[in-house]
Amino acid sequence: MKTISQGFAAIVLTAVAASTAFADGGVIRFGHDNQTDPFENPAHACTAVFANIVTADTNGSVSVEVFGSNQLGSASEHVQQLRDGIIQATLTSTGALASYYPRIDVLNLPFAFANNAATYHVFDGLFGQALAADIEETLGDVVVLGFPDTGGFFAVTNSQRPIANLSDFDGIRIRTMTLPSHQTIVQALGAEAYPLSWGEVYSGLQTGVIDGQMNPIPIISFANFAEVQQYMTLTNHLFSPYTFMINRDFFENLSESERVTLRVAAENCVAASRGLSRIIEASDRGLAGLMDNIEVTALTAEQRAAMVAATQPAFEAHISENLDAKALELLTLFREQVALANANAYLD
Known about the structure:
The chain has helices at about 1-20, 40-55, 75-85, 95, 115-125, 125-140, 180-190, 200-205, 215-220, 250, 255-280, 285-290, 300-320, 325-345; strands spanning about 25-30, 65, 90, 140-145, 155-160, 175, 190-195, 210-215, 230-235, 245, 295-300. It is α/β, with parallel strands linked by helices and about 350 residues long. The chain has a five-stranded mixed sheet with strand order 2-1-3-10-4, sandwiched between helices. It has a four-stranded mixed sheet with strand order 8-5-9-11. It has a two-stranded parallel sheet with strand order 6-7. Residues about 1-10 and about 15-25 have low confidence and may be disordered.
């Protein structure tokens, strides 16, 4: 099946590349790796809203063709295709972007945010602007249009026992992305980090190759992990948004009014991803539904504080040892803006 899927992706990509040569410059080919249902997936809700606004508000001078579900390859391949001009837009995870832009790892400061609203302040504010500018300067061939929601805060599931305290992590093998910082965080909690590709996670949980995994609640629900996991802890230890990027040459060849429309559409795309993420979390497709099939544990303030003390120094040491001075500068700004956002009350 993997060979067949790869072959199909190659055929579609060849067709897209061929059509690019005859495009009038007004078609945005948008690749992402999520399900193509705007009512079920925050990423596709984002792309659907973006496509609708762009097509309508430019009177069709710019249109959007969305290729979801890895039709054109993996998330990492989408980034390279974007840079090569084969596609014009993509949403990419921190894991997929890290090989092109290692400083994205600063977003993985564990247990940073107090709530979802704080994440909006940070990524829509000074830090989001600084991060976007640095990505654009480092890569050179992309424009960053925003940071959509991937589904919310990460939770940890496992098949061994309820996790509430640091000691409960001992000996549990948890799947991580191939990001070294994720591995550092899991190890600092006392668990065993086990990097594994996304396509192998369900079978790994089913066969016992891994005991657990960590992801936002909508992803845990849609991936049917409750079928092979017995326990979930609402750790809220990571928040990893998508990075919405568009090819710079394509963007700069648009008219000024078209560029304005794309930026407005991107803002609405981000809002849609956030709204749908919160709705899914609160519905029977999210936490409410999962609670019928999996034992859920929420952390006390004391339990969370112990995990912060264990993980943040390890993470900061990882950044200091493996990234550059600019990354440390971004991490400092990130910390400052997170602290301000956490202290900011709604309508205060």
